[in-house]
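In this supplementary section we document a worked example of the pipeline. Step one takes a protein sequence of length 216 as its only input; no multiple sequence alignment statistics are reported here. Step two produces a three-dimensional model, which step three serialises into structure tokens for compact storage. The input and output of this example are shown verbatim.
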Amino acid sequence: MAAVLTDVWPLFGLVLRTGRIELRLPRDDELAALAELAGRGVHRPDQRPFLTPWTDGSPTDRARRVLRGHWSDLAEWQPASWCLGLGVFRDGEPVGSVTLRGTDFRVVREVTTSSWLGLAHQRQGYGTEARTGLLALAFDHLGARAARTEVFPDNAASCGVSRKLGYQPDGISVDARGDEALVSHRLRLTRAGWLGGEHPPVAVDGLAPCLPLFGL
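The serialised model returned by step three reads:
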């Protein structure tokens, strides 16, 4: 059945491997483990690092949002508008999730990224390693021209990852969260910036049958 699933939806055969971790679509039991990991917390109670407050509420609320978000991304996938949410695994155990998004990618050739890690797995370099895997897929294999991200100024961990990988300031965004106006820093990494940096090797397997799903 696993082979049939991969034949019908080739993204289940896409695997990115870095030095310590593996990025891939989770199967049902792995998705449940990821949801449970998010339920245990992805930031301190006094922090609010995400514009969409998906981490509010109880552990069950957070776990259900992870499930719904993952299923929604798969159900709504279109070559002109896609959202690739991959589990981050070390030795088969989930440590977090990363997301690569593209809209009209065949023409625009830009992507955006986002991520979260379980509290127990933070400050160990997994965030940098996981984003490196996503960017290698985007630039080296999909032909992206730029990658963008947005971060609150007080999100030191995310800012640090972006600086390490060569992102440059690209203005600000102002968004409403309830009655609060929130300022985010926009950051941008160009293809030249990526190619000019030093990165650990990333192995990408199973991409060829996925290319039509990316509009390529």
